[in-house]
Design brief:
Oligomer: single chain
Distance between the termini: 26 Å
Mean pLDDT: 96
Shape: globular
Number of domains: 2
Strand content: 5-15%
Strand order of the largest sheet: 4-11-10-9-7-5-6
Structural class: alpha/beta
Radius of gyration: 22 Å
Low-confidence stretches: none
CATH topology of the largest domain: Aspartate Aminotransferase, domain 2
Bound molecules: pyridoxal-5'-phosphate
Largest sheet: 7 strands, mixed
Amino acid sequence: MEYQEIVSRSKNVLSIEPKPIPEEKLSEIRDKYVKRNKKSLEMFEKAKNCIPGGVEHNLSQNHPFPLAMDRAKGYRVWDVDGNEYLDYLMCGAPIMLGHSYSPLDEKIIEIIREKGPATGLTCEYELLAAEEIVKNLPGVDLVRFLQSGTEADMAALRIARAYTGKKKIIKIGGSYHGWSDQMVYSLHVPGSGPLYSKGITPESYAHIVDVKPNDFDGLEKAFKENAEDLAAAIVEPVGGESGAHPVHPDWNKTMRELCDRHKALLIFDEVVTAFRLDMGGAQKYFNIMPDITVLGKIIGHGYPSCGAVAGRREVMSVCHGSLGNKIYVGGTLAANPITTAACYYALKFMAEQDAVKKATDYADRLTKAMNDLFATRPDLGFFVYNFGPIMQYVTTGFFSVDIAAPDALKQVLTRKAVADNYQIVTSSEGLCSLAGTRMYSCMQHDDEALNKTLGIWEHLLSLIPKG
Ligand SMILES: Cc1ncc(COP(=O)(O)O)c(C=O)c1O
């Protein structure tokens, strides 16, 4: 779907009052949820005694309580009560080959059996994995492994500041670059500033310059006003929250030009997009080369714990050298044999299997089929769009509420509450998505998955009164 169409359809959704499922139906649905998820509920009750709030995963479906998962295979996951789900969470994006992909698992089991999990020293797979990343990503000469996307984002900012000798960083509102003190600013909802920054000192984000997504004038102004001290601009190249705030087709190009003009570095956070959107990442997909690339969970294909900061040779050179000239990063378990072998083999298998193309073809087909289905209910305005195997669906549009509107918070909360109830339905019918707005596909999703998925959405639509 073209950018302008996404914008106008989003506006349309926001002009429609969110349509709740009638209360009597909803209470039946809630009862069903409790009955079919007894063990999950039991676990949740126990977890509350030893885990704050009883749940640790931000991507969990928490409403009315989180589901505990037992196992995963291909595009399916099963919870502890034995319920089966069509999985579109895909562990938050990294699974491209399908869950528990045997050829990959066999390699890892062999390594654990024959070599052990980690020595804290350099291993062969570290080199093989780094070579594989460099081979695929056109903007990358050197790679430094870390242990999470959050760490890699932190390192990227440090590298940019060390290389340029400047302090400020442009961040686009609504985008996610991990949970470090400086990046938890204007999170999820563009323009929300320190809404999520409890426990963080304002000094930590004092050098973050917040720009609204696709606000070309605001961007130009931010560059001009901060040019003297601007180290970098950091972006999710498909737009914030993996495209929930989709990028204008000229946005990344403009970013690159402005960075060049003002001698700042461009950082692409490719935690989700590298090896999912394209084996060459968003940098190849958009043909825009960043100076620094941030990588995360995707390079371990679900194996813990991984991240990497990568980029141009000259820029990355601040990661080595003599005391006083190099930046400090660390991580005892970074670049361990399990994670780096998972990276090496996963990338090899993905290329061999043409995984990105298969997952993209499926997402294209599902997106079209869902839009055809949603067209039967123009009163709702629901729609889906995709960047390759990253599908974003919009039901109540809580993500796109204008934070400057006088009733913004009320709008977000009301729209979110209605969407949460939709998600109880889709989940009870066997669909696992991300945050009630996103679906990731893998290379194994097939016609059966597509038809079942459509059936679940059709069922949801039948529960929402017409008109
Ligand atoms: C774009 C982006 N950057 C950074 C991160 C943080 O990665 P991690 O959860 O490994 O810290 C995420 C996580 O979802 C992400 O989507």
